[in-house]
Amino acid sequence: MQEKAAVLVSVVMGSDSDLPVMEEAVKVLAEFAIPYELFLTSAHRTPERTAVFARGAAKRGVKIMIVGAGAAAHLAGVIAAQSMLPVIGVPIDATSLRGLDALLATVQMPGGIPVATMAIGKAGAKNAALFAVRILALEDAALQKQLQSYIRRMASDVERKHENLK
Ligand code: RP5
Q1: How many CB atoms lie within 10 A of CB 87?
Q2: What global pTM score does this model have?
């Protein structure tokens, strides 16, 4: 029997209502065949569960945390405070402030505990995964090649779309 590859990236979210956005990150990780896990925990509703998960992640072999949350979005910052792993934050549009609340809460970390904050919503979730791929590719030549062809494909898509405009 083939052994399951160790999880390299944790995709964490504050609520199941965040899943439609965070699925964009999952799609990219799956495309690059990066072993990932999904984890649901809330900085506010389950603070202890969040802390225990964040403290244990590195020991389980996780290398990067992608963390999405909306509203008063403390989840990425709390996880970064409880772990030395790189944390990539995805602000989610979950309230009448349309993600601006989550963006400011995620990006405005006080000096000392960094969260690499992406754009609000689906583009941010996609870029969070691509950012994780770039980090992992530093030590993985095959992944670097995959990333190069992903970027080339994107460029040729633009050219094809240009041709279709005519
Ligand atoms: C945040 O509150 C979650 O990340 C979510 O974006 C938002 C709303 O959560 P629900 O009320 O939909 O569970 O903690």
Answers
A1: 30
A2: 0.96
